[in-house]
Design brief:
By secondary structure, the chain is of the alpha+beta class. Helix content is 40%, strand content 20%. It is globular, with a radius of gyration of 41 Å. The relative contact order is 0.12. The chain crosses the membrane at residues 30-49.
Length: 278
Amino acid sequence: MKKFAALLIIALVAILVLVALTNPEVLGKAWLYVLGFIGYVVVLVENGFKKIAGAFSGPKEKIPDVLPSLPVEKGNYSKEIEQKNQEVLSLQQKIKELEIKLKNSETESGSHLGKCTLTVLRYIDDGETTLGLIFLRNKFFAYTLEDTHRDEKIKEKTRIPAGIYNIGYSPVDPAQSRITRDYLKLYSPWFTKHLHLQNVPGFEGIYIHVGNSHDNTAGCLLIADGVLAGTQQKTLQNSRNAYQRFYKIIAALLDSNEQVNIQILNEDWFDRSKLTSL
C-alpha cells in the first residue's frame, strides 16, 4: 500500500511539472492545493490499510468508557438487625431496672446503694479487664473500664479497691504532670485539671479520664459511651465524647462547692443487693 501511495505522489508531481511548464502563473497557488491533496491521499491510504488489516485480524472488542461495576452479593441481614435491636432493648430495660433499684435498694449495712453522686457497678472481670456501669445520681451515664482485680497489687496493672471516695481536682501542678499538660493541649478551654479520686488506699494519682483499653488505665477509671465486650480484648468506644460531658457536669458541681463522691461496688453487689445480674 505504501508503494501505491508513492506512485500516486510521483504522478501528481509529474502533472504539476507539466502544468508549471505550460502555465507558470498558477504555480504560486497550486502547491497549496497539491500539498493538501497529497496529505489527504496519504491519510486515506493509511485508513484503507488499517481497515483491510482489521478485516483479516477480526473485530476488536470496544472498551466501554465506564467500566461496569462488579456485582455485589446482597445478604439478608434483617434477622441480625432484629436480634441486635432486641439486645439493645433488653439492655436498656435492665439499666432502667438498675436505676430504680439503686435508688430504693439497701446493702447489708442498711445504706442505700445509690447514696453517692456517682456509682460504679462493676459487672465483669476477665482477669485482664474490668467493665462497669457508671450512674450519675442514679441515672445511667456511661460505661467504665479498669484493670483487673489482683490480691497483690502490681503497679499500673491493678484496679483500686471498692469503696466510697471523694472527688476533687488533682492537687498536682499541671506543669509537673505530663498527662495534664497533654489534656490541656487537647481539651482546653473546658479542661483545667484532672478529676481525682482522693485517699484511695495503696494508690496515688487515680483519675477518671479518656481511654480505650486496660493499656490506657494504669489503675484509673476510663469512661466511654460504648463498649465491646465480646472481643478477646474488651475495649471502650467514643470515650472522648463521654468524658467531655462527664467532666463539664462534675466540674460545675465542684466549682459550686458541692461535695462530689463516688461509690465503687464489686461484681458481688448483685448477690448482696439481690439484684439480677446483667
